Amino acid sequence: EIVLTQSPGTLSLSPGESATISCWASQSVRSTFFAWYQQKPGQAPRLLIHGTSSRATGIPDRFSGSGSGTDFTLTIRRLEPDDFAVYYCQQYNESPWTFGQGTKVEMK
Amino acid sequence: QVQLVESGGGVAQPGTSLRLSCAASGFTFRKSGMHWVRQAPGKGLEWVAVIWDDGSIDKYADSVKGRFTISRDNSKNTLFLQMNSLRAEDTAVYYCARDLGGSPFDLWGQGTLVTVSS
Question: How confident is the model at residue A20 (pLDDT cuts 50, 70, 90)?
């Protein structure tokens, strides 16, 4: 099983600042099969980034993903109030599909 | 519109069974792989099970293998999760999610809460 470890657990930032979330995989993941999701309280997760760096439909370009192998990053530039949420990384390279434990981006 | 709607959640006693449903609409269900993902209260996302578009293959997380069964009825655009021998640790919101084949989960339902408690 590919274990995904996110860092940090919580980010306290102000609107307008940038957020950088890291995700490390216990084994190499093909870039094509790596994604990021956003989840707000009481809502289902929403796909943000797939294939490591491709934005899903309707996702603003303030969100960007990068990385390869075992090291992946989600960057959110110019945080807006709507961006404060929990973010999860995911690999869909192989079964079992796995998620990181989540990173909460909270307003300072 | 394109959507997934789960139902069937509720309170169940340990050792009993529950069957969840996920009704799909607005897209070609029979061409989509489908997953169940759960989220325990205050916790992260845990993948539970997947079924191929034609139902020919299914896979499970170790935590539910032998107890849960995923199935689908493509004629009724519906996904199911039969949950047997329920345990307290199965308490979670259960989401169904679409996978268009080696793809991320691009469409999710709103979730249905399962509480296992005596």
Answer: very high
CA distance B82 to B94: 12
pLDDT tens digits for B44-102?
999 999 999 999 999 999 999 999 999 999 999 999 999 999 999 999 999 999 998 88
To the nearest whole Å, the CA of B39 is away from the closest chain A CA by 10
Cross-chain Cβ contact B95/A45 below 8 Å: yes
Pairing of strands B58-60, B45-51: antiparallel
Question: For residue B39, what is the nearest residue in chain A, using CA coordinates?
Answer: A44
Rounded to a whole number of angstroms, the distance from the CA of A92 to the nearest CA of chain B is 7
- What contacts 24+ positions apart, CB below 8 Å, involve A39-44? A39/A85, A39/A86, A39/A87, A39/A88, A39/A102, A39/B45, A40/A85, A40/A86, A43/B110, A44/B95, A44/B108, A44/B109, A44/B110, A44/B111
Partner-chain contact B50 A56, CB within 8 Å = no
Q: How far is residue A70's CA from residue A2's CA, in Å, rounded to a whole number?
A: 10
Say how far apart CA B79 and CA B3 lie, in whole Å.
Answer: 13
Q: What angle do CA B33, B39, B42 make, to 5 degrees?
A: 160
